[in-house]
Amino acid sequence: MAVKGNLADAKSVGTELFDTSEKVFEDIKAKPGEKAFTFMHTVPYEGSVGLVNLLTTTRVLRKGFDTTLVLYGPGVLMASGTRGFPKVGDEAFPGHMALNKQIGTFIDEGGTVYACRFASGALYGFPEDLLMEGVKPFHPLDVLDAALTAWRSGAFQLNTWTV
C-alpha cells in the first residue's frame, strides 16, 4: 500500500509512493496475426520521446503483436552501429547506449527494424553498413508504403515526429 499523508515519512528507500496494483484498462494481448508499426522521425537524445517509444514498441511486441519499427529522418541515427566512446559499444556514462541497447533487445525478441537509406546517406552521410546488426535499410519511398501496409493490415500504429 502506498504511503499517504506526511511526505517526510516517505524518504526511506523502497517506500511505495504510488498504488501500482490498480489497472484501469484491460491488459490487451494480440490475437493471432495482429500487427503493430511504430514510425519514428525523431532526434536521438533530444528528449525522452525516442527511448520512451522504443520501450513502448518493445512492450507491444511482448504483448504478441508482429511488430515493426520504421526509422526515418533523424530517427535513423538511433540505429547507429558505431555509437560509443571512446570505442564502439563503450558506454561513456550510464544511459549513453540506452537507444542501441533497446533496439538490440527489440530485435533479439523478434521485432523488425527498418532505417531509411535516404535519411542515412543524403541527410547524415551515414552509410547503411554502419547500421546496427539486424537493422534493414529501405528505400525512401517505402516510408509511405510501410504506412499504407500498416493501414491496409489494420495494424496498430504509433507515430512520432520531432524536429
- Large-scale geometry: globular
- The CATH superfamily label reads DsrEFH-like
Number of structural domains: 1
**Rg, alpha carbons:** 19 Å
CATH architecture: 3-Layer(aba) Sandwich
Please trace the helix and strand order, writing H or E for each element: EHEHEHEHE
Notable characteristics:
single chain, 163 residues, alpha/beta, Hypothetical Protein Ychn, Chain: A, 5-stranded parallel sheet
Description:
The chain is an alpha/beta fold and 163 residues long. It has a single domain, classed as Hypothetical Protein Ychn, Chain: A. 26% of the residues lie in helices and 17% in strands. It has 4 helices and 5 strands, in the order βαβαβαβαβ. It has helices spanning 49-62, 98-108, 117-123, 142-152, and strands at residues 35-41, 66-71, 112-116, 135-138, 156-161. The chain has a 5-stranded parallel sheet, with helices on both faces. Helix 3 (117-123) links the parallel strand 3 and strand 4 (135-138). Helix 1 (49-62) packs parallel to helix 2. The radius of gyration is 19 Å and the shape is globular. It starts with 34 loop residues before the first strand and ends with a strand. The mean pLDDT is 92.
What order do the helices and strands come in, and which of them pair?
Blueprint: E1 35-41, H1 49-62, E2 66-71, H2 98-108, E3 112-116, H3 117-123, E4 135-138, H4 142-152, E5 156-161
Parallel strand pairs: 1-2, 1-5, 2-3, 3-4
Helix pairs in contact: 1-2
